[in-house]
Design brief:
This protein has 161 residues and is mainly α. The protein is 66% helix and 0% strand. It has six helices and no strands. The chain has helices at 15-36, 50-71, 83-101, 105-120, 126-147, 156-160. Helix 3 (83-101) packs antiparallel against helix 4 (105-120).
């Protein structure tokens, strides 16, 4: 019996990969557009508009790579979608915005985001995560405030320091 050559399997374009590539490219375009809206503050050298362009270039490179892999059907298979981790992280971001908006300050807001993100990754030691988050964010706040003399949102805990 002779083995006949097999026809190569038809490649299917990964539509989800195309959507991700388009989203990355759109985000890069928004960053570049937004950086162009910043007023020129420096007469020479680099101003604040440079960093968004650098980030946009990185996003553009990611978009190109993702587009190539999507067209080649070279992206890894996706797992089933579990909305719980995404909702936990979005909830943490909402808490961060709400706490800062209500005057809670950097330490409490960032600690809330830390705890919800660790829960999204499957960690269940909420009390231990809260203690770790409070210590880390306090040290970060002190480093920014005292060493770098950069201000972060102040709340009741920050006023005690």
């Amino acid at each position: 019996m002779t083995d006949l050559p097999q026809a190569p399997a038809a490649r299917r374009i990964d539509r989800a990969g195309l959507v991700v590539a388009a989203a990355l490219a759109a985000l890069a375009a928004v960053l570049v557009w937004d950086s162009r809206q910043l007023p020129a503050t420096t007469m020479y050298g680099m101003g604040p508009e440079v960093m968004p362009v650098v980030v946009a270039i990185g996003l553009g490179l990611l978009a190109i790579g993702n587009l190539i892999d999507a067209l080649r059907s070279n992206l890894p298979p996706r797992e089933s979608a579990d909305p719980k981790p995404v909702l936990l992280i979005l909830g943490g971001l909402a808490l961060l915005i709400a706490i800062i908006g209500l005057g809670g300050g950097f330490i409490l807001a960032t600690s809330a985001l830390f705890v919800t993100t660790s829960a999204a990754f499957g960690r269940r030691a909420i009390l231990a995560d809260l203690v770790i988050a409070l210590v880390m964010t306090t040290l970060i706040y002190l480093a920014f405030d005292r060493l770098l003399t950069l201000s972060l949102p102040a709340g009741p805990l920050e006023r005690l320091l």
